[in-house]
């Protein structure tokens, strides 16, 4: 068993996290992750109202008695969701760990901490990680350029970002972006992280609440099958490459503004991808890690395999590389 400061902080067996994913982080996936000894997060804003979130948390509790959390992502919007009401629903439901992401979460951190809720903040740079640490969060999820969703604007891949953050961040930190297997977990631990966060990998599991054809598409795709949209608007998002994302990138190169592409990138179209299985229906998030995903296991199978193989890499492969002094050299 791999125990780290992060597993002790949040009370789980394995240093593996299923972070918040819009339209994907639902009770059936989160409970399966929890039952396998890892930490899953329900995505609050996938639920249309705070009352729906309360019901989804209850549904998850019916499926597991293990710890799980809720993700609350704070993003700029013309008409922002009622964040304070979602936050209250999380607190009232007795959730003990929250993943925050997006804009400065100070008011949310303060309120969660007041009620004894541990906060893991997801960020894409060392400076933002240090800022979150000063705000009083309990742990950091550091997100490299390889990730699905928003990688920030610094374009720093995990191989640099993780150790750079580990050099300065004092609280427990998990690594996010580009993780799918035991090799990634061992690498993250070696780079200074206390665990890994996986999104795209958990999309391609039996319990993931998306269409089977999209799971199969993730398995079929290689590491090149993503696009970076909204680059010109400094709101970069890594999504699966398809007819729409390729068109959006081309339009941006020609100077298109958000109003020109709004209809193409509408969330309602993305939602239809997961419902119908048509991968060209709309924009949907996926990371470069697609190139490492070869199957669609259950969450239990996936997590036990990663932990088992990680222990084997540490005990056998890496230890075998340490040259033993010869008898002559010892004399």
Automatic annotation (TrEMBL):
GO molecular function: nitronate monooxygenase activity
Keyword DNA repair found: no
Pfam families: NMO
InterPro entries named among the record's database cross-references: Aldolase_TIM, NMO
Domain of life per record: Bacteria
Keyword entries, A-Z: Flavoprotein, FMN, Monooxygenase, Oxidoreductase
PANTHER family, per the entry: 2-NITROPROPANE DIOXYGENASE (PTHR32332), 2-NITROPROPANE DIOXYGENASE-LIKE PROTEIN (PTHR32332:SF20)
Protein name, UniProt field: Nitronate monooxygenase
Species of origin: Bradyrhizobium rifense
């Amino acid at each position: 068993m791999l125990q780290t400061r992060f597993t002790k902080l949040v009370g789980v067996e394995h240093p593996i996290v299923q972070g918040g994913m819009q339209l994907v982080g639902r009770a059936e996936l989160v409970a399966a992750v929890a039952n396998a000894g890892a930490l899953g997060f329900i995505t609050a804003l996938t639920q249309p109202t705070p009352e729906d979130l309360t019901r989804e948390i209850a549904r998850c509790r019916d499926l597991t008695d293990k710890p799980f959390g809720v993700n609350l992502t704070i993003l700029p919007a013309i008409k922002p969701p009622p964040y304070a009401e979602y936050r209250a629903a999380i607190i009232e439901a007795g959730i003990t760990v929250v993943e925050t992401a997006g804009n400065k979460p100070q008011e949310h951190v303060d309120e969660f901490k007041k009620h004894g809720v541990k906060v893991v903040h997801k960020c894409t740079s060392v400076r933002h990680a240090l800022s979150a640490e000063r705000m009083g969060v309990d742990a950091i999820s550091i997100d490299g350029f390889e990730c699905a969703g928003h990688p920030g604007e610094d374009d720093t891949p995990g191989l640099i970002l993780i150790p750079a953050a580990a050099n300065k961040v004092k609280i427990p930190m998990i690594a996010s972006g580009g993780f799918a297997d035991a090799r990634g977990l061992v690498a993250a631990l070696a780079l200074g992280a206390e665990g890994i966060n996986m999104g795209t990998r958990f999309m391609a599991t039996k319990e993931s609440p998306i269409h089977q054809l999209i799971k199969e598409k993730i398995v079929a795709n290689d590491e090149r099958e993503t696009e970076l949209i909204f680059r010109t608007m400094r709101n970069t998002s890594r999504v699966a490459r398809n007819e729409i994302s390729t068109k959006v990138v081309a339009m941006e190169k020609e100077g298109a503004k958000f109003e020109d592409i709004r209809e193409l990138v509408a969330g309602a179209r993305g939602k239809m991808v997961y419902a119908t299985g048509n991968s060209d229906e709309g924009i949907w998030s996926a990371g470069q890690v697609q190139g490492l995903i070869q199957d669609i296991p259950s969450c239990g199978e996936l997590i036990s395999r990663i932990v088992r193989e990680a222990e084997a890499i540490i005990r056998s492969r890496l230890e075998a590389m340490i040259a033993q002094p010869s008898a002559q050299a010892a004399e």
